[in-house]
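To: structure desk
From: M.T.
Subject: fold request, one chain
Message: Could you run this one when you get a chance? Sequence is below, nothing fancy, just the single chain.
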Amino acid sequence: MAEQYKMIGGDGREYGPATLEEMRVWCEEGRLSRTTLVWRSDEGRWLPASEWHELRWDLPPVPEAPPLPVLELPELPPELTVPAGFWIRAAAYVVDILVLSSLVAILTLPWAEPLAKLQEQFLAQRNSPTPDLEVTTRYLLASLAINLPLRFLYFTLFHGLRGATPGKMFLGIRVVREDGSPVGLGRAALRHAADLLNTFTFFTGYLLIAFHPEKRGLHDLIAGTRVIRIR
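Reply: Done. Structure tokens follow.
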């Protein structure tokens, strides 16, 4: 006995029973698609039409997906392609150190007297043949506790929010990503953390700026940033 078929039409209604030949005619008429639910009597279950091998070749072919559009990246404007060299970046860094030192002096005013006394003690015994390790340790720890967080906030916030520190603004340079977009706080923090490596490499990471074709230092390469001139 030949198998009987049923189908669920596009209107949600059930059609059939029908023979295989009738189902093939319905395929030609476009009443069945590859996802149309079809029931076969010997199996007693509903499956997509493409799952029944005897109907597979009568169903309309799968439409080809249209090709994805080719996205062309816009050309960067000229002001985003001129790298800032070693000397102008060094000058901007000097300006930033002066600004940062002033901020440190203002923020530590409530502790100015004990800090000044600790510095005097450190300078007094620095050249001593038997230096006081306790004084040296206290001075270094106090210096790191003050300077490291403030430097991190200074460079991260200015680079992340404005794209440039006061020194860079003054000299007309800016930190951007490799594609010229803003740095953002996360990448600015990564860049400053990578900048600490320059200290451990005896500042050779900074010297790389003078020889790299895009004037990028070690911290720029790690963070994926560039320093450019702006109009």
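Reply (cont.): The chain has two domains: 5-56, 78-229. Let me know if you need anything else for the meeting.
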